[in-house]
Amino acid sequence: MKEEGFPKFSLHYHAQLWQSLDAKNIARGFGALVAGKSWHWYDQWIEEVRKHCQANTEKYS
Question: Across residues 43-52, what is the average pLDDT?
Answer without folding.
Answer: 98
